Amino acid sequence: MVSTEVVIIGGGLAGLTAGIHLSQKGISVTIIEKNEYPKHKVCGEYVSNEVRGYLESLAIPIQSAEPTAINQLEFETLYGARILQKLPLGGFGISRFTLDFIMYKKAIENGCTIINQTVENCRFDENHFIIETIEKSIYKAQIVLGAYGKRAQLDYSLKRTFIIKKSPWLGVKNHYKGQFSDNLVGLYHFKGGYCGVSKVENDTINICYLTNYSSFQKYKNIASFEKEVLFKNKRLKQILENSVQIFEKPLTISQISFEKKEPVSEHMLMIGDTAGLIHPLCGNGMAMAIHSAKIASELCVLYLNEKKISRNELEKRYSKAWNLNFKKRLAMGRVLSTILVQQTLTLLVLQIVVLFPFVLKQIIKRTHGNPL
User: Fold this and answer.
1) Within-domain flag for 68
2) Rg (CA), the chain
3) Residues paired with residue 197 on neighbouring β-strands, in sequence order
């Protein structure tokens, strides 16, 4: 059995951020991540500037990747109605392949231990955690942060309520070479979903879309679905027909759930998508993951280093801070996901957005936070 102060289950954006923050404060951290780095993930790959200052405070060399600077949003409906909206804070485009690898190297530099295994069980006993992996490794920790993503087998053993409900959403992502403005993030509506387009580093276009699985399964494969459904949006058709695919095949993820999740489960602090997933149409998931890691890390420092709060207070404060910062944003995301399932309602809402552009501005405002 290996003892450490903090075990982080999952080494994605939230997990790595927390590992870097905590190790910077002299806390021993073990991150257990099932995949090796670097790795592509289904993701919009746009990061709001609200977290940029925080990332710089952690000395994470984001600029070394030369990310794109994004300050405009282009929104276009299936029927060609278009809005161009300035993003109040703006953000940057960077692939998860690159960003996660940069953060992985920083975590190692800070002294984090990173283990490529899969957690099978985590139990709380006598004020500490026992974590067991499928590979039969056992770890003991004072704190566990859950950062293992949208859904995992561990959710079943923790008996989290959202995991038993089937979700209709499927995500598809691919990288391309082609023509698209560096400073623009595009959101393009198609029947049964929407597609996000933006540039990341190396003059690469990230195209990532979310669709209702019932719509998708009518077609033989992704290529057929895109030609028959996505191409109905003329702007999206133009982008795709004039771009060259980089990946051998698209990445996919199914059962994407926007159901409510608990920020604390069995004394484990949940961060990132493990605590709550905002609809990608809101364009703020990566920043929220980073922000949640900051909140959890700061409270862990109070508990472990400064001994200023009890475990009960740690959990109460985290739940309160999570709800204060993200509850309303997630609620907006759930409203959007509900709307997109219903085609008639979708068209009505999109018409309202086009006729009254300030509605889109309000959605952006309600799903983004202030600079950290």
Assistant:
1) yes
2) 20
3) 186, 207
Residue 349 has pLDDT above 80, yes or no: no
Q: Supply the CATH number for residue 150's domain.
A: 3.50.50.60
3-state DSSP call for residue 145?
strand
Residue 106 tokens, joined = 């920083």
Cα(254)–Cα(217) distance, integer angstroms: 12
Q: Which residue has 């994605």 as its token pair?
A: 12
Look up tokens 């409906």; give the residue. Answer: 77
pLDDT 10s digits, 91-150: 999 999 999 999 999 999 999 999 999 999 999 999 999 999 999 999 999 999 999 999
358 within some domain: yes
Q: From start to end of the chain, where are the E strands?
A: 2-9, 29-32, 46-48, 68-76, 82-93, 113-115, 119-125, 128-133, 138-146, 169-177, 184-190, 193-200, 204-212, 244-245, 251-256, 264-265, 268-270
Inter-residue contact 32 to 9 (CB < 8 Å): yes
Q: How far apart are CA 273 and CA 258, in angstroms?
A: 10
Q: What predicted TM-score, i.e. pTM, was given to this entire model?
A: 0.94
At position 348, the amino acid (one-letter code) is L
Q: Is the pLDDT of residue 330 over 90?
A: no
Q: 309 or 370, which is more confident?
A: 309
Range of the domain at 156: 2-166+256-367
Counted domains in the chain:
1
pLDDT at position 341 is 64
Q: What angle is formed at CA 3 by the lines to CA 126 and CA 151, rounded to 5 degrees?
A: 80
Residue at 99 is within a domain: yes
Structure tokens at 369: 């936070």
Task: Work out the pLDDT band at 340, boundaries 50, 70, 90.
Answer: low
* Residue 50 forms part of a structural domain: yes
Name the packing angle between helices 285-304 and 311-341 (round to 10°).
Answer: 170
